[in-house]
Write the structure tokens for this entry.
Amino acid sequence: MRILIVEDEPPAAKRIAQLLQRIQPEVELCGPVDTVKGAVEWLAKNPLPDLALLDIQLADGLSFEVLSESGVEMPVIFTTAYDQYTLKAFKHNSVDYLLKPIDPEELQQALQKYQRLHQQAPPPISADVLQSLRNTLTKPQYKSRFIIKLGQQLSYIATEDVAYFYAEGGIVYAQMPSNKRHAIDYTLDALEPLLPPQQFFRVNRKIITHISAVRSVAPYFSGRLMLKLQPAPPFETTVSRDRAADFKQWLGG
């Protein structure tokens, strides 16, 4: 059995590969490929895999474009970190989905579903289904969790549990209310559009705070605001004069 992995986060791709080899030691893994363009080129140059695991959100677009641009027909399991998506449409013939971080039992069940459907020669994913998924997933969506590394193992944290994200020494950390912090593989600029704006606000170039972390707000010099956050960050947190009005509006809901 040949499985193509299309995933743009190296730790996630590595985990998928390890799980597949554990569940089906005889599996032949292809990839990983990390872009829509790369996947289309791979499919054009290689024999069609028996199954593909496609990360929905790739750096250069949605992975649905891999199917539409390549014109290939193959069983697919989509993977996503966005559990607020309306994913009922994925349960259609050869289509399935897995939420990240991928649970070994759920992956095994998805592979078993593929085996059942493969025996029945399921119809390819129709253009109507792909368009329906595109329409759903191109709406504004926000990350519900982030992959973190604990020693040699991968785990995750829920977005809503993060007190704030901040940059220090070229690294971005997710600060938890428990005073623990976790390095994450994002810049603050990349994070900002992934966070629900009702809950998170970009205070300045160094920090994005959750509403629950704001303990007090006080006027500061030159029209700025001084924030007291809990837990306290390793630096003074102020809102610039240009952002102060927007911050007050956000604070008031």
